[in-house]
Amino acid sequence: MARHVCTLAAFLLPALSLCLPSGYSWGAGLLLLAALATAPRWWRQPLQWPRARWLVGVLLFVGIDWLIDAIVSQGSWRGLDKPLKYFLALPCLFFALRFPPRPRALWAGLAVGSCLSGAVALYQYGVLGEWRAEGFTNAIQYGNLSLLMAMMCLVGAVTWQSGPRAGLWRAGLGGGVALGLTASLLSQSRGGWLALAFALPALVILLRGRVPGRRLLGALAALAVCLGVLVTAMGPTLKQRLEQAVSEARQYEELGTSENSVGQRLAHWRLAWNMGLQKPLLGWTLAGYVEEKKRLVAAGQAPAEVLKYGHAHNEFLDVFAKRGLLGLSSVLALYGVVLGLFWPRAGCRLPPERHALQLAGLMLPLCYLGFGLTQAFLGHNSGTMFYLFVTLLLYAALQAPPEEDAAATPAAQA
């Protein structure tokens, strides 16, 4: 029964993430309730996977770092929502490792979630006439998470080789790629596409020799065609957005203009960097960051536009300014540990289904690194929840016993 619940949560979390308000909370909430209800069954169980200790350690590290910031910044126990996410992910991780979800539930959830995100975007943009799709969160988070799920679906579509209804699975995942990319483009989130510079080269390198060359080339060609069709369909809008970005960047460099999207980002980056240099170890804290920005604007040392946002539109500069090098090291550790957990080890060849889970896991830190260049992605609830819970579910699924319907051999420890 416990494993069925974990499997259901593994499906619900990606499937509902972008098609409902706080849709990612349904699967995460179910996982947490199941973990607490079955605590006596996993609490005293030894951790059988030594590498999982790295994930436990980094969750504690980041959670404690956020806890320190909450206490120091506000002088009370308010603002505990951020560290709590990391601490509550721990029982969910132990539960999922003890009762790992069936891998195909995750693939189904990713395909359904990506398709639903595309459907929502088409409805908002094409039927409601909104100028950019934003789902039930802001457009940047929505577009970037849609792109991430599309990339994870691409991994599944390329690596799926055999087993019952393999063609149907590939078609469903391929649909997830097309509709996820559609949602991302309709969100008009420009910065998120930088993630492809991290994710696509890694995919090509890691898939060479693991899948037939024709299939890999065919998948890349199909991806290019899909992007070409979407870009052509939205040609005037995308051209306008690109020209606008170039123009705004030039205006900032030549005139210091920050009353636009690109200009206020560049002003924020410069301000966050300078603030971080002033307090490099522990930063200004969240409250201190806000107050110092107000002081600088009042003194005429920063443009008023920086007061419109509580973050610097860059994950790394934002953390550096607010939590210093300690906070920056926690974010880099969060990405680095997950990258290390899922990166295929030399000499260890997993069955195709398990190799696909590894590559899907790699998409999380690689894409988040790209997203973080233009957005404080983990500063938003959607970014944190998706990263934490999809990571632990993917890692737990790698430890699942071989599926009767997956035509796989027993997986090596990941």
Structure notes:
It is a single chain. This protein has 414 residues and is an all-alpha fold. The chain is 71% helix and 0% strand. It is built from 16 helices and no strands. Helix 8 runs parallel beside helix 10 (213-233). The longest helix is centred in the C-terminal third of the chain and has 28 residues, at 315-342. The radius of gyration is 22 Å and the shape is globular. The protein starts with a helix and ends in a 16-residue tail after the last helix.
Tally of discrete structural domains: 2
Q: In terms of per-residue confidence, which ranges show pLDDT below 50 for 5 or more consecutive residues?
A: 404-414
Q: Overall pLDDT, averaged? A: 86
The structural class is: mainly alpha
Instruction: Give the termini separation.
Output: 25 Å
Summarize the structure.
This protein has helices at residues 2-16, 24-37, 39-42, 52-74, 81-98, 103-127, 139-159, 166-187, 195-207, 213-233, 235-255, 261-278, 285-298, 315-342, 352-371, 381-398. With 414 residues, the protein is an all-alpha fold.
